Amino acid sequence: MTQKPADITEIGGRVRAIRRRRGLGLDTAAGLAGISKGYLSLLENGRRRVDSRALLDRLADALGCSVVDLTGEPFVPAHRHSADALQAVPAVQLALADCSLDDVPDVPARPLADLAEPVHEAHRNYLDHARYDLAGAGLGSLLTDLHIHAATGAEPERQRALALLVEACIVAFGVTKNLGHPDLALQAAHRAHEAAKAAADPALLAFAGQRRAQALQRVGAFRRAGTVLEQALNNTQEFADPTAADTSAAEGVGLLHLAAAMNAARAGYVDRAHNHLAAAEELGARTGERNALGQHFGPANLGVWRISIGVELGDGAAAYDRASGGIDPATLASADRVAMMRADSARALAQEDGRRDEEAIRLLDSADRTAPARVRQDPVMRELLSTLGNRTRRRSWELASLRNRFGLN
Fold first, then answer.
1. 73 occurs within a structural domain
2. Considering 61, 77, 93, which residue would you say is the last residue of a domain?
3. How many whole angstroms separate alpha carbon 36 and alpha carbon 41?
4. Were both Cys, which of 83, 188, 207, 311 would link to 173 (CB 3.0–4.6 Å)?
């Protein structure tokens, strides 16, 4: 079928425009991105789509721009929950800019005892189910109050405030990243790390280190993400006892290994990716299903990560076939995790050059119905939908419905 060339509203069109502004020829830009000239030409003309985050990052690096320059984020919200959630972004930005761990506004804060439940609810009830509107409601004031307690409180209240601040910053990271504000997500992740370091808690350091690395990956800073992951593993690995009564440190270290596996996969280090994945799986086999700090570490979530890492390694369909049958959505107990399992499974099957596109469309449709605010704002999912639409040879109600829901018609 005839395909229209990508315009400036699509990633391929933005690649073409930025490459030309930089004065780069197709040969040079393709070489810098590690792809062929022909493939880059197909991307720029809308005949191929960016099918992995690794390729998106390599293109941004080759063109000397940020990932968001190519994706065009933040997008116009395609779901009312996302539109409502955007109201929280300015308050979160102000709280992180106006507070530090030793410099806070001279205003009264709510009692610390009144802050724990709202933080837990925002994280485990709302963020975990991709309800960014509810997770973000009041988040700015929560962050400010927790900073005040962390900066001025006496022990042991200060330790409790630091732990809650790590969790609140993880919420801020999730809300802002998934709404298309990766720079603010990076700031939230850095603050979580600072609070975890001040608390000197190995489990918090591991969880915050993973989020910090993910934030760096989101803006394409893979070298720095690798350094952060290596440092975090060095500082926490000795505390990772999967047989302890409290396995939270082991869960955190397992998540660090998963983030390191993803970082290696995107950089093309296949053996390193598999080694980190194996280390995480060894820990998960011994901890069983756990959920310290709402992170769902255990065999089920490991299966989701196997698929996601397989996609970045270009082995997505095989990874999906190996892992998908062993993942019980009820065990994950998280709309966010279930949606991303289905969405990345769709990406995996789309790597089969059209042979499994019908199944991929069904999975993407299911992912969107599970957590629409999460899926519709993801630039890679939007590219996937365009890829599936361009390749289809027959009309599909699900595909047409998806395009309408994503606001792509």
1. yes
2. 77
3. 9
4. 188
Asked if the bond preceding 156 is cis, omega within 30° of 0, the reply is yes
- The Cα-based distances of 121 to 30, 118, 128 in angstroms read 46, 5, 10
Q: Are 305 and 295 in contact (CB under 8 A)?
A: no
Average pLDDT, the chain: 91
At residue 152, the 3 state secondary structure works out as helix
Band (52; pLDDT cuts 50, 70, 90): confident
Distance CA 259, CA 216 (A): 11
Structure tokens at 296: 């769902």
Task: Please calculate the CA angle 324-318-388 and round it to the nearest 5 degrees.
Answer: 85
Selection from 73, 154, 166, 74 nearest residue 119 by Cα: 166
Number of domains in the chain: 2
When pLDDT is averaged across residues 200-217 and rounded to a whole number, the result is 97
CA angle 189, 301, 402 (to 5 degrees): 85
The neighbour count for residue 207, using CB atoms within 10 Å, is: 31
CATH of the domain at 60: 1.10.260.40
What are the structure tokens assigned to 132, written together? 């960014």
Question: Which of 77, 95, 121 represents a domain boundary (last residue)?
Answer: 77
User: Which alpha helices (H) appear in 296-352, and where do they start and end?
Assistant: 299-312, 316-323, 329-332, 335-350
The verdict on residue 330 lying in a domain is yes
Q: Kindly state whether residue 55 falls inside one of the protein's structural domains.
A: yes
354: left (phi > 0), else alpha (psi -120 to 50), else beta? Answer: left
Can you give the residue range of the structural domain that contains 58?
1-77
In residues, how long is the chain? Answer: 409
Could you tell me which residues come within 8 angstroms of residue 402 by beta carbon, excluding any fewer than 6 positions away?
Answer: 361, 364, 365, 368, 385
How large is the average pLDDT for residues 385-392? Answer: 86
Question: How far apart are the C-alpha atoms of 257 and 212, rounded to whole Å?
Answer: 13
Is the dihedral angle over the CA atoms 44, 50, 54, 57 positive or is it negative?
Answer: positive
For residue 249, pLDDT over 90 is answered with yes
- For residue 274, CA distances in Å to 18, 54, 342 come to 35, 16, 22
In whole angstroms, give the CA distance from residue 311 to residue 315.
6
- Which token pair is 228? 């952060």
**How confident is residue 68, by pLDDT bands cut at 50, 70 and 90?**
confident
CA max distance for the chain: 68
121: which DSSP letter? I
